[in-house]
Amino acid sequence: MNYLSVRFRLDSYNEENAEILVALTEEMGFESYEYADEFLTAYIKEDLFNEDELNEILPSKEGGFSFNVSYTFEKVKNENWNKIWESNFQPIVIDDLCTVKASFHEGLPETKYTITIDPKMAFGTGHHQTTSLMMRALLKEDLTGRSVLDMGCGTGILAILAALKGGATRIVAIDIDPTATESAIENSNANRVGDEIEILTGDASLLASQEKFDLILANINRNIILDDIQKYSNVMKSQGVLQLSGFFAEDVDLIEVGAKAAGFEKVSVTIDNRWAQVKMKKK
């Protein structure tokens, strides 16, 4: 499968503007982003790239934003992808409890949990604020006797952490992208929890055949959450917990309205550099 590398240049580059650009473009199917100086480089499957659509959604001063964006793009050879992510993937530690590293990292300090992730083109290494927010939320959950669903699992990092924590009666991970579920299977096996996680390729329609869950994790963009939140509710046990991220702080009110209509109530909100993580409970 061929990928394109799209190199965006922001005429007023800062982290906030870069995150705005990510939020606007990720729904097109971009799967990975790299930050460097005034440039943001993004990767997308060649057959998903629509230049007309991209031009319509790009921020501009004329459109009310504080910056303009220009871009170039080129094809990325499959054999170059490992070199790209290896050069940009640094190990991280979440709350002194969980280390996330690649298979080639050595000599790291020991933490209670260690997750080895080789992301390829799937989202989820813990580096993005939304993934680290969700990992922090999951680290606080007692999974003893509870069933867990990871929607939009990407690399499988959350499902893997749930398995490493132990105690869960069942863990299911779902992603619509076959590349992501292939990555999740490889990563779960590499972390020796492959037998503990059921990994499925598809969307929220798969939930109709699932037994109800005690805990649902969904690190997906705002629109998909709003479209699917009733499906989450349908497959959630009473008093079950829904942990959400993938959207900005200014989207929390909209998420809360949709969640309330689906039978959830807000428990807490955590913000990290404008990205939000919300804990909901099924009434």
Automatic annotation (TrEMBL):
Molecular function (Gene Ontology), one example: protein methyltransferase activity
Cellular component per GO, a single term: ribosome
Entry EC no(s): 2.1.1.-
KW Transferase (keyword) present: yes
Keyword annotations: Cytoplasm, Methyltransferase, Ribonucleoprotein, Ribosomal protein, S-adenosyl-L-methionine, Transferase
GO BP: any one term: methylation
Coiled coil location: none
Family (UniProt): Belongs to the methyltransferase superfamily. PrmA family.
Protein's name according to its UniProt entry: Ribosomal protein L11 methyltransferase
Organism: bioreactor metagenome
